[in-house]
Amino acid sequence: MTDAVYDAVIIGAGHNGLALGTYLARAGFEVAIFEERAEEGGGLCTEELTRPGFLHNVHCNYHTLVGVCPVYEHLELDRHGLRYVRPPVQMASVFRDGTALTVHTELDKTCASIARFSQKDADTFRRLYEETKGYLDMILLTLMYSPPISMKDITKALVAWGVEEKAEFLSVHLRRISIDQFLDQHFENPKVKAHLAFHAACAGYSTDRKGLAVSFPLLVGKIDNWHLCIGGSHALAHALWEGFAHAGGRVFLKHGVSRILVDGGRAAGVELCDGTRVRARKLVASSIAVEQTFLSLLDPDAVPAPIRQEAERTPHMDWSFFSVHLALDRAPRYSAAAFDPDVDHAWVVNLGYESPEEIGRHWRDVREGRLPDPRPNAAVNSLFDPTDAPRGGYTGLLRHFAPYALAQGGPEAWDRVAREYGRRCIERWRELAPNLGEDAILQWATYTPLDISRRMPNMLRGDWMGGLIDLGNMLDRRPSASLSQYRTPVDGLYLCGATQHPHGFVTFAPAYNALQVIAEDHGVERWWR
């Protein structure tokens, strides 16, 4: 028995599912999105984890593609109340000797800060930044907001465009080296290198992995484009939901999908956890993990054995995030402000990494299931968004690279050690911002890699990126060669989530690229041109 029929059925109401649904609804499709959780937005969740009125972005806190990603403009999200602020002092690194490095929205100020450590590095950074900016649109459109091509084809394109002849830094040879090696080749000061490596790590890139230098110029090109969503990251989820609703789409919360229906080799709809069957006239799109799609929702006889094996071998991130969310009665004041007063006005602050080697030691610790000596990064959103805390209060965030499974006790051990590790992270913050005494913290709560997997079913093993960021799991190899183009062996079934190119975070690229494929297959009028 069929209980409802739509043109398109989308599994998962994260930002990718909502964006794809809105594009299709505005193209005239009848669209329904089914979500297991009680709210839309996926990782765009904002909660009062500590005290009433203190808004904590539990997963996504930094939005780095605002004004660059075409989805914001196409879906007119500002008309649905979405507002951002771009902090003038974007980032900082605070060092144990009382010095600090700051990154600004003004290039001259950033270079002046770097020059206090090395004039040569400041000049190199300026050239790298300006060269990357010159090619940024091409890089984004070719490498992010288009269905992926192979590294071999990218090499041919760079040669055809003459990029390598003109560029100092952009080269196909970057695919052979790590970000750490790139930094060693071009920069001299360990603190400058530490900050640039820290920035890459915050974006999800392990700086010691061979080949990831190929993405580093893109990261530098948007090093000053970190945006804060006013009212919390869930405001973006709400704007997406409202835009989808205005286009005629429907979101069904607390309606988990238990099965994808296949009829004659074609995706024909879904069966919900309560037994309801929903038919799809044209397509089903899954924004959840590739393992969940192929190993749980599809009957085994509907999936070719090689595809099942590829899904089973999906590589996940070998590190996750441990967070401490704090309700504060004051903003931090860093001792390093005597060296650079701008550090007190920075949004994202590296608390103690002084060289890429220190970050590298932490990668090794995490991969072996050990808790690193705390070097968290800090953010106080209230410096730029007065709506996220009561008057006189400040919402704080500490975040640290961490293992999903601990060597002693596995993932469940987090329930035992989280509070103590959170306390150690706070102590590290206090060493560098001594005004944050015991009386400054009204309440604090931890959020572990295990908590991520518990609260976000799509983020298996605490993997917020939807799969390992690695040269073998990028472009037309993500999540495998057979599944990299958003289509699947099941006719009418598409993939539009973080497992697809380019990866997780709020890029919207998996949905946007899946849309291009769906439009081609179904003759959708491209109103978004």
Describe the secondary structure blueprint for this structure.
Elements: E1 4-11, H1 15-26, E2 31-34, E3 46-47, E4 56-57, H2 70-74, E5 84-85, E6 89-94, E7 100-104, H3 107-115, H4 119-143, H5 151-161, H6 163-166, H7 179-186, H8 190-202, H9 216-221, E8 228-229, H10 234-246, E9 250-252, E10 257-263, E11 266-272, E12 277-286, H11 290-297, H12 305-312, E13 320-328, E14 348-351, H13 356-367, E15 377-380, E16 394-402, H14 414-432, E17 441-447, H15 449-455, E18 493-495, H16 509-522
Parallel strand pairs: 1-2, 1-12, 2-9, 6-14, 12-18
Antiparallel strand pairs: 3-4, 5-8, 6-7, 10-11, 11-12, 13-16, 13-17, 14-15, 15-16
Helix pairs in contact: 1-10, 1-16, 3-4, 7-8, 8-13, 11-12
Tell me about this structure.
This protein is 33% helix and 18% strand. The protein is built from 16 helices and 18 strands. Strands 1, 2, 9, 10, 11, 12 and 18 form a 7-stranded mixed β-sheet that branches. α1 (15-26) packs parallel to α10 (234-246) and α3 packs across α4 (119-143). A hairpin with a 4-residue loop joins β11 (266-272) and β12. It has 3 domains: 4-36 and 255-315 and 463-522, FAD/NAD(P)-binding domain, CATH 3.50.50; 46-76 and 83-105 and 224-229 and 318-462, Protoporphyrinogen oxidase, mitochondrial, domain 2 (Polyamine Oxidase, Chain A, domain 2, Alpha-Beta Complex); 106-223, no CATH class. The chain is α/β, with parallel strands linked by helices. The model has no long low-confidence stretch (mean pLDDT 95).
